[in-house]
Model the fold of this input.
Amino acid sequence: MNIRLLRSLLAVALLIPLSSCTPATYSKERVEESIKNLCKKEYDLDVTTRITGSTLGVFIPVEGLIDKDLKLDQDAGEKIEDVALSIHRVSMSTDRPLKFYTLTARDIDMPGAEFVLTGHTYDVVRVRLLDISRGEYHKRILRDFRFNPVTAGEAKIAELFQALNENTPLVQTIKHIFYPIYTLGQDGTQKIEIIDIQSKEISEQESLFYVKTKEFYHPKPGFESYGAIFPPGFLNEYIILVNISMLPNPIKEIVAKYFYSGNEIRQRELQKTFDQYKDIGYIAMDGLPKKALDEGWFLSRQITRRIKMTFEEEKNLRNRFTVQSSEGHIENRIFQFKFSISSEMPSLSKDDSEVIFSRILKLIAAVTHRYEFEDFEGVELIDARPDGKNIYLSRDDLERFRRGRLKIQDLI
Done:
């Protein structure tokens, strides 16, 4: 029998209990509840869970996620490991087909600080079958230890509106942005209530917020007539851009719906502006996935990280090159990986470029082959240096390259 087919059959046998003789330990209707109960009973941990499509999400609040050296706290790490083990136990012993899982741990006292594990359930099966090594298994898990720009940004926005309502000295120079209540209203009478807030993670550092408010004020003498347009309790909107790299003052830009121009009050279409931005985040404010994850997205993230890992771990590469940046995504069935890799020399030689492109292509070909992933049309590599080259391979050409039938010299 074909070895790959045999492994696949064994994997399926592990993933799907034999309903004819042995019922699933954790029924598909009670997966979320089972993980909650397991974490509580065995580790005294309270978690929340949600399944979206074939993606299982688990969230745990943690006190003291980060230690004094800004690293993952040991106690928090042990809690995360306990929850991860619970996820593996349930997902391996249920008749519900789960493809991905996310585990998010957030610091209770430090808004935005979070640790996210994202894994492919099939990888858990394969490591148990000894089909992949534990080292390879750990390379396949996505680990994000960061400040979530959306979570941190929303906390800062709440602080901003609280400061406006309390009329603190910190907001005196920006009141004019919040048109019209600070133009029409008597000092100290303005109150702004947030009634809805939408958010998008638009980069690793930046988040965009569409904020709807209800606003109250007492008009200044002579401005009473504006009450017909802006009665107390009128609705207003703002777009706020937050960049957490600018902490402790990360609010980068505020745009109000209403503004005065050419002797008239005008409006901006903020919803339309907000809708034009793409949300690259996948963990929602509640710590659970925003949507079901897909394999193309997962592999693009995994390969992006493994590019950096490869050049740091392989001796012949780390002594010669340094990865400045590595980005990747899949769109319209095309993988695109953009990277900047330097050497000790001022510029890369032709041989350097061949080594870099060749090693990255070998990695991409190996990962897509091991996952038997074929739902893509091609791969584009972009060298982000000023004099860098770009190359494109179709999926068939990538397979030819993996088999040694296409050389890097033919591509550069």
Q: What stands out?
A: Confidence is low (pLDDT under 50) at residues 1-21. The first helix runs from residue 3 to 15. The chain is about 35% helix and 25% strand.
